[in-house]
């Protein structure tokens, strides 16, 4: 993948700064893994990969702007995947999607700090 990929990668990480902390951490980790995996992708795969990430960046940017303008009561990030879109995914991608969903929906432990600085969960 060429230099355009680096600019897109940076743009996405910048956009993630506006997300809630848990989503940002999850998104950053996923973006880094995916861009790393696709470094040596062939031209056709790289083009599709970049197009999908450009669409993602545009969507997240729009949702962040809507959140800033309070256009929705509650901001929901991302989109619902249609059955048609899911059918285009390879088995590996479906597995990754399942892992993301599991990570995004698992309860987060709350950590509190007591006066003597011991961590409690």
Automatic annotation (TrEMBL):
Organism encoding this protein: Calidris pygmaea (Spoon-billed sandpiper)
Biological process (GO), any one: succinate metabolic process
One Gene Ontology cellular component annotation held by this UniProt entry: mitochondrial intermembrane space
Compartments, record wording: Mitochondrion matrix
Protein's job: Plays an essential role in the assembly of succinate dehydrogenase (SDH), an enzyme complex (also referred to as respiratory complex II) that is a component of both the tricarboxylic acid (TCA) cycle and the mitochondrial electron transport chain, and which couples the oxidation of succinate to fumarate with the reduction of ubiquinone (coenzyme Q) to ubiquinol. Promotes maturation of the iron-sulfur protein subunit of the SDH catalytic dimer, protecting it from the deleterious effects of oxidants. May act together with SDHAF1.
Broad class of the protein's primary localization: mitochondrion
Similarity comment: Belongs to the complex I LYR family. SDHAF3 subfamily.
Keywords linked to the UniProt accession: Chaperone, Mitochondrion, Transit peptide
Subunit structure of this chain's protein: Interacts with the iron-sulfur protein subunit within the SDH catalytic dimer.
Protein name: Succinate dehydrogenase assembly factor 3
CDD domains named in the record: Complex1_LYR_SDHAF3_LYRM10
A Pfam short name: Complex1_LYR_2
């Amino acid at each position: 993948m060429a230099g355009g990929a680096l600019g897109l990668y940076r743009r996405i990480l910048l956009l993630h700064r506006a997300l809630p902390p848990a989503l940002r951490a999850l998104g950053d980790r996923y973006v880094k893994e995916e861009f790393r995996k696709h470094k040596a992708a062939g031209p056709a795969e790289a083009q599709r990969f970049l197009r999908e990430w450009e669409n993602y960046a545009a969507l997240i940017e729009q949702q962040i702007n809507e959140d800033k303008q309070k256009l929705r009561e509650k901001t929901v990030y991302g989109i619902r995947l249609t059955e048609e879109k899911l059918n285009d995914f390879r088995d590996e991608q479906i597995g990754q999607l399942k892992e993301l969903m599991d990570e995004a929906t698992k309860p987060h432990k709350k950590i509190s700090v007591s006066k003597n600085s011991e961590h409690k969960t």
